[in-house]
């Protein structure tokens, strides 16, 4: 946190008797440093049970690369998965999959400018897994083999990752980055690197990077999980202390983002850009200093309040008629680099409206700087902040290890404080009441200054759009300072959402299910309420309400007139309150509720803390009985949506998906493009959509409500009787309907051409109608996961042809019974035919012999790993107990699923492969516009 507060904060902090004190470290975290300088963090955390999270944090990233190493920090990250002392060649991923760790989904890593971090979650259900996890971390840190063969094989994979990033955003970034990172080393050290280095560097150059920077004094191992802290500490000391630093270590330099007097302006366009945006940053005068003292911590609290108040004002503008931008945010905080923070603002806009968006952003900042904030704004921000801390404090004993571990990584890499939520909550309760408007108003004046400004405008290049000049951009800054602005006007405070009323509702029947641990009430209006009390989180309740029907029962003509309006309905607000009014009313409450009209059903979904359950019920009641009708709000939504989607078809991947969807749904009159056109909007009937909503939600007797979490039954009963049992009901029942429309089937290959970069996408599908079988559905899903393992092995590891890709299989029951098996992967255009053939060869192996037993075992281990964790998740149970209403599935599937999965055999998977993967297939291919030969040549020149 930058020290920007003046003497008033010193007086405040001295009065609080905390001046000069250091921020404490959470005592539950064991922190130590080995004799070689390697640091470790260890914390016992019981959730998930029998699991541990490892991180290896390396204080070295692309910023430390020599000129001939551009991209090799990231390349080195790849190489740690391609051969270490104890896991040669590609054995590491194979081993980790065998103990239930999925590559990419669980096992991962990232490389940044200043750091490289490896992530490894390990299940502890089998002896030896803990030691194996530590051995993997040890090998990553010190024992990469870096053989010539593996380095040369991995070049293609890294190049495929580089390929994925090509496109209009990259082309524009290459132009504006030198100004955003003006005169800094960072501008020349993007982690993805340079193509010629990746393709041509000698293996010794990678080995040199590893030797120079993967050393004990630049590393930390972080361990959080269901472990014995003393045991882990001993193992770390025994296994990691023996490694030495180089006798003459290279200096680990820090690099600054220099300040500059002149403003740096970048105005960049591209014919294929999919959106318009504006960003400005005002760099701090001094280098970033981490929060080490309580004084600095308290200053960051004031900063957080300022950010919240500014962004609340921007949200009002976004929700107003004729919004100046579709999204906007302002904050003071981190930049691309560690050493510098900045006051920053960004917005997405309509095409050609960037200058106006910049003006509005600057005006809001100037308004706050000139007139300050209001007391009601500050009070609301305090309520929000305290509520967030309180919710985190209430759930402090039920955090998942993965939610905690990144904080300790940040402490090592950036010295961010880790006092723990107990200290944080107790401290903020003391500090917040004393924070004054003077402090927040003084802060923004300190942050907003005239030097070290960077402004970036981006958007599509079109003849119809005239972009502003640099002079116009700079003049906007100057004109705003002289603008005739008025202080922010606070609306009157909303006291209630639902007017008090007396409910006559009753519970007419109750039943319990001992297996599921649920209780179901039938209410006098016909609605049903099922709840399950859990202790997975101490302060969390998740809920939903479902009624069958959805858009499936809407006639084609009405559906086509309303489908783009349903998502806009809540934009009008509830109970006479606008979205802005509602956000103010909900300040300080941990609750969210939304309604929807979907394919087979309509319903409600949301979350709440225990104390805010009443507010959640008020929102549910209002969603049913008092949705606002506001055509102006719909027009605002339409305007924002049109701005966001106006150029989306320029994106090759979106174009590919959209065109293929149109092709296979050509016989479906209910299908239109994924993005609404002007014609679609002109045909949209907001009033009709509102009437359909009101009709569907007028019959609460057709809804089944579900609540899962740390529920007080008496509190729930009180709120259910007051709000749900009093909802109107018509007594009619409904069900979803099969419209009868089907996507195109048959054997065909469709090729689409879009994009200038040498990038292709391939989708191979088998789909159609078939009688539903749960066993076959489970087998198809398993086959998709096993196929993903083989595709990554074959297409990535053996052929170096893809960076990522995979397969998925499923069997759906609604609205009709159908199977689907799809393989997707991105690749170079020159490799499309070869990789399709390789994929089909792998599929044929499944048909002829079935998968290998070891791969099926990997899948089962991975599913067991996820299933045991999910069983302690409220959202998982909410979905599980409500699924039966949607598709008539066995209500006990949530308990029996893994037993059925465990019973799967290689023969079961072979049988579904024979049955469904020998049918007609559909292949869709995206190619660049100029063909792959030219694309290949272009790639060679880049």
Topology:
Layout: H1 7-15, E1 29-33, E2 39-44, E3 51-58, H2 72-79, H3 91-98, E4 108-111, E5 116-123, H4 129-142, H5 148-164, H6 168-180, H7 195-200, H8 203-213, E6 219-225, H9 229-240, E7 264-270, E8 276-283, H10 294-319, E9 327-334, E10 341-349, H11 354-371, H12 375-394, H13 401-414, H14 421-431, H15 437-447, E11 453-460, H16 470-481, E12 507-513, E13 518-523, E14 528-533, E15 541-548, H17 556-562, H18 579-585, E16 591-597, E17 601-608, H19 613-625, H20 631-645, H21 652-664, H22 678-683, H23 686-696, E18 704-709, H24 713-724, E19 748-753, E20 760-769, H25 774-798, E21 806-812, E22 818-827, H26 832-849, H27 853-870, H28 874-887, H29 893-902, H30 906-916, E23 922-927, H31 931-941
Parallel strand pairs: 2-6, 7-11, 14-18, 19-23
Antiparallel strand pairs: 1-2, 3-5, 3-6, 4-5, 8-10, 8-11, 9-10, 12-13, 13-14, 15-17, 15-18, 16-17, 20-22, 20-23, 21-22
Question: What is the tally of beta strands?
Answer: 23
Q: Order of strands across the widest beta sheet? A: 12-13-14-18-15-17-16
- Strand content range: 15-25%
- Given helix and strand content, the structural type is alpha+beta
**Total number of helices:** 31
- Name the CATH superfamily classification of the largest domain: Metalloenzyme, LuxS/M16 peptidase-like
Any idea of the CATH class of the largest domain?
A: Alpha Beta
Mean pLDDT: 94
Domains (count): 4
Straight-line distance between termini: 40 Å
| Helix residue percentage | 40-55%
Q: In the CATH scheme, what's the topology name of the largest domain? A: Cytochrome Bc1 Complex, Chain A, domain 1
Rg over CA atoms, rounded to whole Å, is 29 Å
Shape-level CATH architecture of the largest domain: 2-Layer Sandwich
- Name the poorly predicted regions: 1-17, 938-942
| Biggest beta sheet summary | 7 strands, mixed
Shape: globular
Keywords: Hydrolase, Metal-binding, Metalloprotease, Protease, Signal, Zinc
Domain Peptidase M16 N-terminal: 45-162
InterPro entries: Metalloenz_LuxS/M16, Pept_M16_N, Pept_M16_Zn_BS, Peptidase_M16, Peptidase_M16_C
Protein name: Zinc protease
């Amino acid at each position: 946190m930058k020290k920007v507060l003046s003497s008033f904060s010193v007086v405040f902090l001295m009065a609080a008797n905390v001046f000069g004190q250091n921020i404490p470290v959470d005592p539950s975290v064991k922190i130590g440093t080995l004799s070689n300088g390697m640091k470790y963090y260890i914390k016992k955390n019981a959730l998930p049970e029998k699991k541990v999270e490892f991180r290896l944090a390396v204080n070295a990233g692309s910023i430390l690369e020599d000129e001939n190493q551009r991209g090799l920090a990231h390349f080195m990250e790849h190489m740690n998965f391609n051969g270490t002392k104890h896991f040669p060649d590609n054995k590491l991923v194979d081993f980790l999959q065998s103990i239930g760790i999925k590559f990419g989904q669980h096992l991962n890593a990232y490389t940044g400018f200043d750091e490289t971090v490896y992530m490894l979650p390990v299940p502890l259900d089998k002896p030896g897994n803990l030691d194996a996890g530590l051995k993997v971390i040890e090998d990553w840190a010190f024992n990469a083999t870096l053989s010539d063969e593996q380095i040369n094989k991995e070049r293609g994979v890294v190049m495929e990752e580089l390929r994925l990033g090509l496109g209009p955003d990259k082309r524009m970034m290459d132009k504006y980055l030198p100004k955003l990172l003006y005169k800094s080393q960072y501008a020349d050290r993007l982690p993805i690197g340079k193509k010629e280095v990746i393709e041509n560097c000698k293996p010794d150059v990678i080995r040199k990077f590893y030797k120079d920077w993967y050393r004990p004094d630049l590393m930390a191992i972080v361990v959080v999980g269901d472990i014995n802290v003393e045991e882990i500490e001993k193992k770390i000391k025994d296994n990691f202390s023996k490694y030495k630093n180089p006798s003459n270590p290279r200096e680990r330099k820090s690099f600054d983002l220099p300040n500059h007097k002149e403003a740096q302006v970048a105005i960049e366009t591209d014919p294929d850009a999919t959106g318009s945006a504006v960003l400005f940053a005002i760099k701090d005068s001094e280098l970033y200093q981490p929060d080490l003292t309580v004084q600095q911590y308290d200053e960051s609290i004031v900063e957080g309040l300022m950010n919240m108040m500014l962004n609340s004002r921007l949200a009002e503008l976004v929700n107003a008629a004729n919004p100046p931008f579709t999204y906007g945010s302002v904050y003071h905080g981190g930049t691309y680099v560690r050493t510098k923070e900045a006051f920053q603002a960004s917005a997405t806009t309509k095409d050609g409206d960037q200058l106006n968006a910049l003006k509005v952003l600057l005006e809001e900042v100037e308004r706050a700087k000139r007139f300050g904030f209001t007391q009601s704004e500050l009070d609301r921000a305090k309520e929000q902040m305290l509520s967030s801390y309180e919710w985190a404090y209430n759930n402090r004993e039920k955090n998942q290890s993965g939610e905690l571990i990144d904080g300790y990584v940040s402490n090592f890499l950036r010295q961010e404080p880790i006092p723990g939520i107990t200290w944080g909550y107790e401290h903020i309760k003391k500090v917040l009441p004393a924070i004054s408007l003077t402090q927040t108003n003084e802060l923004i004046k300190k942050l907003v200054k005239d030097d070290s400004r960077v402004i970036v405008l981006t958007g599509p290049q079109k003849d119809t759009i005239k972009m502003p000049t640099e002079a116009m951009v700079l003049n906007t800054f100057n004109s705003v300072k002289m603008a005739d602005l008025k202080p922010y006007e606070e609306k009157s405070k909303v006291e209630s959402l639902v007017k008090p009323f007396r409910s006559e509702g009753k519970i007419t029947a109750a039943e319990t299910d001992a297996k599921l641990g649920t209780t179901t009430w039938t209410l006098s209006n016909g609605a049903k309420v099922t709840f399950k009390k859990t202790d997975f989180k101490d302060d969390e309740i998740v809920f939903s309400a479902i009624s069958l029907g959805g858009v499936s029962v809407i006639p084609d003509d009405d559906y086509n007139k309303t489908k783009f309006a349903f998502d806009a309905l809540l934009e009008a607000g509830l109970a006479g309150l606008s979205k802005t009014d509602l956000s103010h009313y909900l300040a300080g409450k941990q609750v969210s509720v939304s309604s929807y009209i979907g394919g087979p059903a309509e319903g409600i979904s949301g979350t709440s803390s225990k104390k805010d359950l009443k507010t959640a019920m008020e929102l549910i009641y209002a969603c049913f009985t008092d949705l606002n009708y506001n055509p102006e709000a719909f027009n605002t939504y339409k305007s924002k949506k049109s701005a966001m989607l106006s150029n989306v078809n320029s994106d090759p991947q979106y174009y590919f998906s959209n065109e293929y969807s149109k092709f296979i749904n050509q016989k479906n009159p209910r299908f239109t493009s994924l993005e609404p056109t002007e014609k679609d909007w002109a045909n949209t009937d907001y009033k009709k959509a509102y009437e359909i909503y009101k009709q569907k939600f007028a019959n609460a007797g057709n809804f089944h409500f579900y609540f899962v979490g740390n529920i007080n039954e008496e509190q729930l009963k009180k709120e259910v009787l007051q709000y749900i049992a009093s909802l109107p009901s018509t007594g009619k029942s409904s069900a979803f309907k099969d419209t009868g429309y089907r996507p195109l089937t048959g054997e065909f290959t469709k090729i689409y051409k879009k994009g200038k970069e040498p990038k292709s996408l391939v989708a191979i599908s088998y789909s159609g109608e078939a009688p539903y079988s749960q066993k076959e559905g489970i087998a198809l899903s398993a086959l998709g996961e096993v196929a993903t393992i083989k595709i990554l092995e074959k297409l990535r590891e053996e052929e170096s042809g893809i960076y990522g890709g995979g397969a998925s299989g499923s069997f759906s029951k609604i609205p009709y019974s159908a199977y689907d098996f799809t393989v997707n992967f991105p690749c170079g255009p020159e490799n499309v035919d070869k990789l399709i053939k390789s994929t089909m060869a792998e599929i044929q192996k499944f048909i002829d012999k079935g998968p290998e037993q070891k791969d099926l075992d990997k899948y089962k281990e991975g599913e067991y790993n996820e299933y045991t964790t999910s069983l302690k998740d409220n959202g998982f149970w909410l979905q599980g107990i409500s699924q039966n209403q949607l598709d008539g599935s066995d209500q006990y599937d949530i308990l029996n699923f893994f037993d059925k999965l465990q019973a799967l055999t290689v023969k079961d998977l072979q049988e579904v492969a024979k049955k469904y993967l020998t049918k007609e297939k559909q292949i869709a291919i995206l190619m660049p516009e100029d063909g792959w030969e030219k694309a290949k040549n272009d790639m060679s020149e880049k």
